[in-house]
Amino acid sequence: MYRVIIVTGSASGVGYELAKLLYGQGGNIYIAARSSEKVNRAIESIKASVPSSKGHLAPLILDLADFPTIKNAVDGFLQKENRLDVLVHNAGLMTPPAGSKSKLGYDLEMATNCMGPFILNHLLEPILTRTAHAESTPDNVRVVWVSSMIAAFVPPGGIQFDEKSGSPKVLANTMHNYMQSKVGNVFLASEAAKRLGGDGVISMSVNPGLMKTELQRHMPRVQSIIMGILFKPPLFGAYSELFAALSPEVKAEHNGGFVVPWGRFGDIPDHIEEGLKPRAEGGTGTADQFWNWCERETKPYV
């Protein structure tokens, strides 16, 4: 079946491996990343790796931490395509130097991992829902939010908010700060499921697994070497994301769910699960609070 798929961060790492798998099956894949040079290099490499593919590869140049570039990229995409079957929010940033900010002054991890994908998702919602309405087979239009191993190194409740500003805090513990942005992906997937599920769009969050990729490029060299020995190669993470994106096992009843390595349904820790529920249902309402914060802060760019 002809499918149009966007994979962010697919010029390298897990996203690259996922794009290669999808292209091998004849998909129309958009390689989304910041650098046109890296994107073009990835496209040529994928084509050389799968010479028999009947698929298509195209660049989509955007910087998730530089919000105005996202709308420009989406406008270009919409001029070329009249459908979008799968959107994979794969791109991410992990533990950059302390105090790193986006061009607009936001914490760089929160901007890259959550706010930019939120904008991209919002701008592509109309074409996602149109595609779902046109599909004769249900449950095929998907949005995949790539999270992490949220059972550890996560602050209580998933995201810590500043009471005065109403914004997520920038946490002193670098791993906690990264992990709260990854819980943010779980929250956004759950809230997107509530908002778009009625239109036939399924949203899933994914722990792709422990792998050695460019994501750890900011870590100390010794730690990076150990990860290279113990962790899996990026292809394994692509299997986890592929399950969420295309598996026929994913049905409407799984909307908003969580996928774990290397492609199966998993559980969300209780203190994060509480955040997925509104206060009226006995939860903390943190997911809704985070969605509303993202919506408020990104409104000028959608």
From TrEMBL:
InterPro entries: NAD(P)-bd_dom_sf, SDR_fam. The keyword NADP applies. Transmembrane segments: none annotated. It holds the Pfam family adh_short. The keyword Cytoplasm does not apply. It comes from the Eukaryota. Keywords: NADP, Oxidoreductase. Belongs to the short-chain dehydrogenases/reductases (SDR) family. One of its GO terms (molecular function) is oxidoreductase activity. This is Short-chain dehydrogenase.
